[in-house]
Amino acid sequence: MHGETNQKQVESNTLLTAMVVDDSGTLRAAINRFMQATGFVESVVEAVDGFDAIKVLGSAPIDIIICDVMMPGCDGLQF
Question: Which of 12, 16, 17, 66 has the fewest CB neighbours in a 10 Å radius?
Fold first, then answer.
């Protein structure tokens, strides 16, 4: 079933806009590269913490969020 959903996504050319929220720039970059390589993502927006993510959500439509749970300031659970 999962493969069928992925195939429909590719066929419809509906690409996702993703957001990666993590205080580690290295992990954000790695997740960004991975998501771009899947072919399902049109763009990846990055945020350094929950506060930054809230600002991004106020200014851009996001389809999927990958978020770290443990971050300084506003963590993934508070966000």
Answer: 12
